[in-house]
Amino acid sequence: MVVIHRGLRREARLLVELIAAVAPGDTARARLLGDHFRDYRLGLTGHHHG
Predict the structure, then answer these.
(1) Are 42 and 34 in contact (CB under 8 A)?
(2) CA angle 50, 45, 27 (to 5 degrees)
(3) Running DSSP on this structure, what letter comes out for residue 26?
(4) In angstroms, rounded to a whole number, what is the distance separating the alpha carbons of residues 4 and 28?
(5) What is the pTM of this model?
(6) What is the tens place of the pLDDT at every residue in 1-40?
(7) Rounded Cα–Cα distance for residues 3 and 33 (Å)
């Protein structure tokens, strides 16, 4: 359980940094990070409901 929580917190921190660093107009990068965020959110939701 500790490992899962550490991983989820790490990913949340990284996502914040990566999203903040997207250059204006870089839609490809924004789309990629959006897809990753969706997967992260699904994993987090599954973890909390599981």
Answers:
(1) no
(2) 150
(3) -
(4) 29
(5) 0.77
(6) 889 889 999 999 999 999 999 999 999 999 999 999 999 9
(7) 23
Tokens of 3: 């490992």
- Of 50, 45, 44, 31, nearest to 5 by C-alpha is 44
* Inter-residue contact 48 to 4 (CB < 8 Å): no
CA separation, residue 23 to residues 29, 30, 37, 40, 43 (Å)? 8, 9, 17, 22, 27
- Report the C-alpha gap between 26 and 31 in whole angstroms: 9
Q: Pick from 12, 13, 17, 14: which is nearest to 44 by CA?
A: 12
